[in-house]
Design brief:
The protein is an alpha+beta fold. Helix content is about 40%, strand content about 25%. A hairpin with a 5-residue loop joins strand 17 (about 490-495) and strand 18 (about 500-505).
């Protein structure tokens, strides 16, 4: 082992082995040399007058020259350049010499082993007193490691399935990967060095510019989605983040995804529209005004889901003449023009116009260019001016067909900013038209049946007699939503002995069989009761026996009341009311003082048609002249929204409050008071008011 004090001294060391002290300049020079060595920087000095090229050891090592191998000429430098970089690099040197300016180039060096190194050369040409170039001084920097890192990054960027580009602070493209070339439909040669706002001018003023500039100004990443118009015509999801060298932008073409999302939204909107149309058309129809109101609501629902503008056409149902009865435009400012056009177009269009052809043929018609087809046929004036203001491009006209009849048409229009209806939209429009047509046809059939039912019902309910000592008022009102003939009935007639018989009844069921049974019961009861010597209980008993004997599958409720008066009662101003109740709501008695009494308490005895041997009883009460007897069916006091007991209490209260009204007005007021929203069931009333003597 050699001990420290036994080690040989290096030249220039002190006897004690210590290095001599360095000057500040020497320390500074040493630091620079160490830094240059660490950075892989070599220097050169090219004498332009003699052609001699001097390299330091670091530069010789970068180029792979050993001691004594470098020839010291510019040709020796050029010999190590990659063939593809040689001309460009030599031209950069020549330009620096010619201009006595800066030299800068990046090139590849091919070592004798075949290894490639990337070198960045920088330098400056020096001139003599006359301005002629005499020397070129510079340095070479080994960029191989940096270039290797860049290459790895580039390989990653090139293999990414996402588009990527980089912009410098002047908004010039500095890098574009292959996917960006494909998505942006430009080659990187076209884009590199170009300004993004010049290459893609449609981005100016859009979210692209707002977010790109915002990211640079704030130093914060921006993530957004935006649409670029044709020729790209695509949606992009963009992530832009700023850095010291400019802006890096990563983006995906999400047009297909956005399209799928939009199709899903459109499909949901169409389904919601169909549900809404069904709900709107299920409302009460049956009159021209109601139909037009329903169609107007449908028109407003259809826009803008299926079109920008819609017109609903309807047959008047008499002479087959068509009328535009409803319409709507998505733009409030254009609704007056749409209304004007709808009011004039059928009188202006030619016989072969799409709407008329659709009505005649019962077939869907599409018009790709409405302006070319329709506008030339319109006369000058208001209708053409309205058409021009609306500026439709495409149209679809669908007939409203139901049960082989054309009831009208649905016309949908779209402007230039919206493509013509596709197959899904046309199918949805057809479904709307079918639902509207079926609802209209059902409503018309319903109205026809209802009117026939009312006529049949009223034909079986005759006007009441008007005896000298009393006033009799009858009312029959069918349910507002019933299309079938009901089983409610009333009757009032005079017996030979002068007594008055009042009858109220309700056959179970709401159909033509119930109506037929009602007519039979009414006729048989009249025949039984007319004799005059049969009390009300006996009348119901005989009627029950007849129903059983004739095999009538009928059940019904009924009240028979007989107004009797002896000479003594007449002199005293009194009258006897005698009645029998077969399961019907109890009659009400209004006294001259305004008090209301329920005759017989609750419902009566067993209804008709259940047991022919059922026991029937009559009840009687003596009343003063001026009293009023009210018989009614349960449709007045019972329904989905009204319990029977509650309804009866309301009727008693209303009868007391309206006691002073004339009998005609009293009956009408009772119906209005108890059923302000309309009748849910048929209602029959029969009332008698005894005149004072």
């Amino acid at each position: 082992m050699i001990l420290p004090e036994q080690r040989p001294r290096s030249p220039g060391t002190a006897p004690d082995g210590r290095l001599p002290a360095l000057t500040d300049a020497e320390v500074s020079r040493l630091r620079v040399e160490l830094a240059i060595d660490a950075a892989g920087i070599g220097s050169f000095d090219w004498d332009l007058l003699t052609g001699e090229l001097n390299w330091d050891d670091q530069l010789l090592a970068i180029f792979g020259y050993g001691p004594g191998e470098f020839g010291g000429t510019i040709e020796a430098f050029a010999a190590r350049l990659h063939p593809e970089d040689r001309a460009r690099t030599m031209q950069a040197l020549q330009d620096a010499v010619d201009t006595c300016g800066e030299y800068s180039a990046e090139f590849r060096v091919v070592l004798p082993s075949g290894e490639l190194r990337w070198v960045q050369g920088r330098g400056r040409a020096l001139a003599d007193d006359r301005g002629a170039p005499v020397r070129l001084l510079g340095a070479g920097i080994d960029m191989t490691r940096v270039r290797g890192d860049d290459a790895r990054v580039a390989r990653v960027l090139e293999t990414m399935r996402s588009a990527f580009f980089a912009l410098d602070p002047d908004w010039r493209f500095t890098y574009v990967n292959a996917e960006a070339e494909r998505v942006l439909r430009r080659s990187r040669e076209e884009m590199l060095g170009g300004v993004v706002w010049e290459l893609f001018p449609a981005a100016v003023g859009t979210d692209f510019e707002v977010h790109y500039r915002g990211a640079v100004e704030t130093g914060q990443e921006r993530v957004f989605e935006a649409h670029y118009p044709p020729p790209l015509d695509a949606w992009y999801e963009v992530r832009a983040w700023p850095g010291p060298d400019g802006l890096s932008v990563y983006f995906l073409d999400v047009t297909e995804r956005r399209g799928a999302e939009q199709r899903a939204r459109d499909s949901a909107a169409r389904l919601a529209l169909l549900a809404e149309v069904s709900a709107l058309m299920s409302a009460s129809l049956g009159s021209a005004a109601a139909e037009e109101a329903a169609l107007q609501r449908v028109a407003e629902a259809v826009v803008p889901v299926l079109g920008d503008w819609v017109i609903m056409t309807l047959s008047n149902g008499q002479d087959g003449r068509m009328l535009d009865v409803a319409g709507w435009h998505r733009d409030p400012a254009l609704r007056p023009a749409a209304a004007t056009y709808a009011s004039l177009r059928l009188a202006s269009v030619p016989p072969d116009a799409p709407v008329l052809r659709a009505l005649e043929s019962g077939q869907l018609l599409t018009v790709p260019d409405v302006r070319a087809v329709i506008r030339p046929t319109l006369p000058e004036g208001e209708v053409r001016e309205a058409f021009d203001a609306l500026a439709p491009r495409s149209a679809v006209t669908l007939p409203l067909l139901a049960r082989g009849r054309t009831l009208g048409a649905l016309s949908l229009y779209r402007g230039d900013d919206r493509p013509a209806a596709d197959a899904d939209e046309v199918a949805a429009a057809r479904e709307v038209a079918d639902r509207v047509a079926l609802a209209l046809d059902n409503a018309r059939l319903f109205d026809q049946q209802r009117r026939l039912a009312e006529a049949l019902q009223r034909s079986m309910l005759t006007a009441p007699p008007q005896p000298d000592d009393a006033e009799i008022v009858v009312r029959y009102q069918p349910a507002v939503q019933a299309a079938q003939v009901g089983g409610d009935w009333y009757d009032a007639f005079l017996q030979p002995d002068g007594a008055t018989v009042l009858v109220i009844g309700d056959v179970v069921g709401h159909d033509t069989e119930a109506a037929a049974a009602m007519g039979q019961l009414r006729g048989m009861l009249r025949g039984i009761a007319y004799r005059g010597d049969v009390p009300p209980a006996a009348v119901l008993g005989e009627l029950d026996a007849a129903v059983d004997a004739l095999g009538m599958p009928t059940m019904a409720t009924a009240v028979v009341a007989r107004v009797e008066q002896t000479p003594e009662q007449r002199a005293a101003g009194l009258t006897t009311l005698r009645w029998s109740n077969a399961g019907h709501p109890a009659p009400l008695l209004l006294t001259p003082e305004g008090a209301v009494q329920t005759l017989g308490g609750g419902r009566g005895e067993l209804m008709l048609g259940v047991d022919p041997d059922a026991r029937r009883t009559s009840s009687a009460v003596e009343v003063r002249r001026g009293s009023t007897l009210l018989l009614y069916t349960d449709g007045l006091v019972e329904g989905r929204d009204l319990l029977l007991d509650d309804g009866t209490d309301r009727l008693r209260t209303a009868l007391a409050e309206l006691a002073d009204l004339p009998l005609e007005r009293l009956c009408d007021a009772l119906v209005t008071r108890l059923r302000p929203e309309g009748l849910q069931d048929d209602v029959a009333l029969v009332a008698i008011r005894l005149h004072p003597h």
